[in-house]
Write a structure and sequence with these properties.
With 90 residues, the chain is mostly helical. It is built from 3 helices and no strands.
Length: 90
């Protein structure tokens, strides 16, 4: 059974890579290569640096409407503690 599973894996992985490459989904190969194959279990904040990026421009920028309480409210101590504990990035 072990031999069958290893043979299946040995054939399935390259076949999947060929299919992904031929169907225009090379980004999936790169994503798996830059996460799972280096020991991560998901994406990180700086993974965008590993891919080709381009700026998205708009003809005319529009400001978002601001709420009347914008920048007037503060977090309580418990909320600040949770944000610091989880190292939230703003």
């Amino acid at each position: 059974m072990k031999v069958f599973l290893s043979l299946l894996l040995f054939l399935l992985v390259p076949a999947s890579a060929v299919i992904l490459y031929n169907t225009g989904n090379q980004h999936l190969i790169k994503a798996v290569n830059s996460t799972y194959l280096i020991g991560k279990t998901g994406p990180a904040l700086d993974d965008y640096l590993k891919f080709v990026n381009r700026p998205v421009t708009a003809a005319k920028a529009q400001d978002w409407p601001k709420h009347s309480k914008f920048n007037l409210l503060a977090l309580n101590e418990e909320e600040e503690f949770v944000l610091k504990k989880w190292a939230v990035v703003f």
